[in-house]
Amino acid sequence: MTKMQELEQKILSCWQITDDLDEVFSYFYEEEKIDNDKLANILLGLKEVYNIKFENTFNTYEQALKEYYDRKSAAISE
């Protein structure tokens, strides 16, 4: 798998935050009981998870750019 393909998969994975937030919303909405501490812990946990996902995605983006420019440079040299 090329870095560009890997980047595409990681970007799509980051979109899962909307599904995760829907789950949290449904859980608290259907329960009709808001436990502020529990909600805060869930949201802080999601924040940390997605910070990691976005950082990994950006690292893959940088690697994909390097791969692209290395290939472009090699093609010009030929």
Fold topology:
Blueprint: H1 3-14, H2 16-31, H3 36-77
Care to give the gist of this entry?
The protein has three helices and no strands. The protein is an all-alpha fold.
What key attributes describe this structure?
78 residues, mainly alpha
Whole-Å distance between the termini? 24 Å
Order of helices and strands: HHH
Class by alpha and beta content = mainly alpha
Mean pLDDT comes to 91
Please report the total strand number as a whole number.
0
Number of helices: 3
Portion of residues in helices?
over 70%
Q: What is the CA-atom radius of gyration, in angstroms?
A: 19 Å
Provide the β-strand percentage band. under 5%
Number of domains: 1
The biggest sheet amounts to: none
Q: Which stretches of 5+ consecutive residues score pLDDT under 50?
A: none
Oligomer: single chain
Written overview of the protein:
It is rod-shaped, with a radius of gyration of 19 Å. It has one domain (3-77). The model has no long low-confidence stretch (mean pLDDT 91). It is 90% helix and 0% strand. α2 (16-31) packs antiparallel against α3. By secondary structure, it is mostly helical.
